[in-house]
What we know:
The chain is built from five helices and two strands. By secondary structure, it is mainly alpha-helical. The protein has one domain (about 5-90). This is DNA-binding protein.
Amino acid sequence: xxxxxxxxxxxxxxxxxxxxxxxxxxxxxxxxxxxxxxxxxxxxxxxxxxxxxxxxxxxxxxxxxxxxxxxxxxxxxxxxxxxxxxxxxxxxxx
Length: 94
């Protein structure tokens, strides 16, 4: 899905891109990054499309999504100190 179509679906759902990011527990900056690529991952495209369709039928999806126990997506590059990509980084012997 192209970014413009994604934005149209999110708008059709009656929410902002920031609200979308909060509901699906992703970093809002990720959406900005996708805009530069002009392509949205398929799982986010499906969610946005379904939100738009639900809103068309006056079905309020926000309380249901807000009540889900979704684990926030980990920010890339935010590994713990001393770790890189999940691997413990040891100092080289000197």
